Amino acid sequence: MRKYEFTGETEVFLNMILHRIRAVVDFGNVHAGDVGGWIEKEENLSHGGTAWVSGDARVFSNAMVSGNAMVSGDAWVSGNAMVSGDAMVSDTARVSDNARVSGDATVFGTALVFGDARVSGDATVFGTARVFGTAMVFGDARVFGDARVHGGKWDKSPCFIQGTKWSINISSPDTVRCGCQDHTWQEWHDNYAAISRLHKADDVLEEYIQYFNLLCDMYGHEDCKIRRNLGQPR
């Protein structure tokens, strides 16, 4: 059964023609006659379930929204991305490339999910967070703020420290991100002083060494802890 039609309203978006949609039957919280968002073709939005695209949200290229998923606000779903299950993508969030958002997962704010990333279960990605690469975020995990996660499987929230000069988070099981710098545990251990000088961070170096050593303890990298007499000349 068809649940929506094109209204006849179109827009040119990124050199593609998108079509505004309108519901033709009642389903979920949508009523016949409700005007929805924009899709490039019917393959972008399943006629099954209660999946819907609302507001000025856009789904295009080979992307697919299915199940009971909702894409709303000014969100985009593009590339070969899939949003399914009871997932929700809203605000100005973007899901692209080969990314998958499923289950009861939510992506909102200005968050980006791209690459081959997977967000599922009750996971939440929001704020200006980025989940990409081969990262898998699931369970009750939350990725938020300006955290960047590009690898690993996370069923609990990867550690994220904010309220500091630069935020610091675990970006994969093998890497730690501080500000714009993303390095392996060993690289931080070996090069922390040079990185600090390069970015004029010597005034907060001791503070960040303590954060890094805490993360080493939490994630089983005690051999990478930076061991020096804090407060003493290097």
How would you sum up this structure, described in words?
By secondary structure, this protein is mainly beta. It is built from two helices and 25 strands. A nine-stranded mixed beta sheet has the order 1-2-3-5-8-11-14-17-20, with no helix packed on it. A six-stranded parallel beta sheet has the order 4-7-10-13-16-19, with no helix packed on it. It is elongated and about 70 Å long. The termini are far apart.
Element-by-element helix/strand order: EEEEEEEEEEEEEEEEEEEEEEEEEHH
Rounded to an integer in angstroms, the radius of gyration calculated over CA atoms is: 21 Å
Shape: elongated
The low-confidence runs, each spanning 5 or more residues with pLDDT under 50, are: 230-234
Instruction: Report the strand count.
Output: 25
Q: Count of DSSP helices?
A: 2
Quote the beta fraction: 25-35%
| Global mean pLDDT | 95
Helix content: 10-25%
TL;DR?
The protein has about 230 residues and is mainly beta.
